[in-house]
Amino acid sequence: MPGSEVEKIKEDSRALRGTLKETCESDASHFSHEEYQLLKFHGSYQQDDRDQRNERKKAGQDKAWIFMIRTKTPGGSLSSKQYLEFDRIAGDLGNNTLRITTRQGIQFHGILKAGFKETIQRLNRVGVTTKGACGDVVRNTLAAAAPFQNAVYREVQRLAKELSDTFLSRSRSYTEIWLDGKKLNADVPNDSPTDEEPIYGKVYLPRKFKFAIAVPPYNDIDVFTNDVGFIAHAPNGQVEGYNVFVGGGLGMTHGMLKTHPMLAQPLFYVKKEHAPAAAVAIVTMQRDFGNREDRKISRLKHVVEDRGIEWVRQEVGSRLKAPTEPIKPFAFVSVADLLGWHEQGDGKLFCGIFVTEGRIQDAHDVHYRSAFRVIAEKFGFPMRFTANCNLYFHDIDPSKRKEVDEILKAHKVPHTDGFTESRKTAHACVALPTCGLALAESERIFPALMDSIDGVLRELKLEKEPILFRMTGCPNGCARPYNADFAFVGRAPNKYAFFVGGSIVGDRLAGLEKKMVELKDIPSVVRSYLKEFAEKRKNGETFSQYWGRTHVNGAKPVPEQFHIELAEREARLAGAKQPASVSE
Q: 397 near 443, Cβ under 8 Å?
């Protein structure tokens, strides 16, 4: 019998229908709590504008209800036609911005209930679905974003699409509720003639589930932070198979030791023709063994932690019915995107464009939205979103490079040649005012914070060093803070937990250095660490390498690493008296 409240809601939902259709068509200002849980499966989070919350409460008014609607675009690929419809929807129904997500999709913010159904219909007409972009299902599948035109990158993009289609919910509820029972575009996979879910079952998965496919040497999709990571093995320019890693996930709750980040562990190597079957075997294993009593410990990482990687390997192997091998050698050099101009391998070019916090808007003298609209309308270049929330235009004839540069310059889109290396990879989550979980600001204050940190980097002559900074407004980890060199995680307004010790290649978790740092003090605190690095590093050593040589986060991180400050952890290791409690 399902345990948690959400499990009961799913069980009673009639294949994710609930009363969504009735409420959508009513004059109610928002959906109920039970409906909100089901709404996620259809690609949306119900929110309210938190900037207005206090004033509206004082005035005795209802919350300013709005919706975030998220697309499911495997591998981040999008046509110019699709993008232009995104742009129009943002202007017609949203808040005039588009937000690139860390899962290579787009979020529309500020959608009112009256425009909810129209938004979904317009997206589906151009072949984009929101189904499964949220909820206890397989979310958008990440794939190496760089648009190189070769067999390896084409294969991982193809696999991303196959996995997306494989794990798309078969329930007809999405079509019935939002599309009036009609399939609006042939590019969106068919709904099943029945509601039967051969992979998910009646109550779907215990929690969200994430896939990512990487191509060494670039870890631009942060493969180890996913429930399942496929790392392409292509020794001769063709993908022969994949190294499979399982159990990644960064979400946690401050002070709750049973919740903590984990990076994916090596499972096995599988030939490429068996990769989809391996994916199904892992997902159904999680379906059957994931915790359904406590959603805080319901991700695959907790199955791996509780039962052990060898048990997982045997259980998955019993379901796979295909040969596996030990992990093949591979190496990553960075989680960074390839910004600027690059040859894509077929005589054409691609252009990687840095988008400040992934927010496509016309604001602060930078007109991203107008620039991208002009390029899409004039040239029709396809595009690809990245997991670092940047954008690639690709298939560009070299003769068009100057025109593209002129458009970007005219709209004051920043050129990254003058950036510090840290600025190129730094990222923050959305947080306030739309995220209901945010404890502190993130996206809105991060650019100014990075301006200050950039000043420190230049002062210490570290502007060319690849040092990874990330910020989130709460401990759920949407901007992947816990494997960054430096991370700031919201605890309260203007107060952040401070983590140090991840890696520029994404393969190591940080540790809590300070439980609480005020926003105004962050630059000076960071400076002390960077100064030590500048003075004590070995020749050519990156910050990640320096920290790994001089500090110990733990080969196998323990929960205390994320909840108890470094000094206290060291005291414990030295045999000092333990405090009576580690609660907040």
A: no
Q: Mind giving me the DSSP string for 202-258?
A: TT--SS-B-EEEEBTTB-TT-GGGSSEEEEEE-TTSS--EEEEEE--B----TT-TT
The type of residue at 272 is K
Q: Are 227 and 247 in contact (CB under 8 A)?
A: yes
Q: Which segment of 49-58, 415-424, 551-560 scores lowest on mean pLDDT? A: 551-560
User: d(Cα 245, Cα 262) in Å, to the nearest integer?
Assistant: 12
Beta bridge partners of 66: 47
Angle made by CA atoms 385, 286, 196, in degrees to the nearest 5 = 85
Do residues 73 and 140 make contact, with C-beta atoms less than 8 angstroms apart? yes
SS3 350: strand
CA distance 384 to 145: 7
- Residues of 285-307 as b/e, b for ≥16 C-beta within 10 angstroms? bbbebbbbeebebbbbbbbbbee
**Would you please indicate which residues are annotated as catalytic (active-site) residues?**
70, 139, 208, 210, 429, 435, 474, 478
For the question of whether the overall pTM of this predicted structure is more than 0.85, the answer is: yes
In 433-542, DSSP assigns E strands to 469-472, 486-492, 495-500, 511-518
Which is nearest to 134 in space by CA: 114, 156, 107?
107
Query: What domains does the chain contain, in order, with CATH numbers?
Result: 340-421 (3.90.480.10), 426-573 (3.30.413.10)
> Tens digits of per-residue pLDDT, 486-508?
999 999 999 999 999 999 999 99
**How many Å apart are CA 139 and CA 454, to the nearest integer?**
34
pLDDT digits (tens, 9 = 90+) for 408-452: 999 999 999 999 999 999 999 999 999 999 999 999 999 999 999
